[in-house]
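Friendly challenge for the regulars: who can give me the structure tokens for this chain first? No prize, just bragging rights.
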Amino acid sequence: MKEIRASAELRIQQGKLQEFKLVVEKCVQSVREKDKGTLQYDWFLNEDQMLCKVHEKYQDSEAVLEHMGNLGDTLGELLSLCELSLELFGSPSEDLVNALKGTDIKYYRPFLSL
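First reply, four minutes later:
Bragging rights claimed.
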């Protein structure tokens, strides 16, 4: 399975919602303009808009690395406004695993699928 899926949960800091939304818009714009292997990039806010979920799908590990590189400083801006936890589904490359070291991430490897 080359495809990589990710589910991110972002807990937005009190009083930072509007700034968070502006940075998210920059993230989405970057993906639209630069990413070649991003297949899904959907953002959701809960009712009180303090918790955000992101559903992502990439062609492969290289596409995830490209995405991270394209976001650059914008990713740092985003992480200054929220607390991130990440779940990654698939078989990530060694390069991707190394790039994600030090983050709050849980890996789920393929077991069964159609």
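Residues 4-108 form a domain with the Alpha-Beta Plaits fold (CATH 3.30.70.100). The chain has four helices and five strands. Your move, everyone else.
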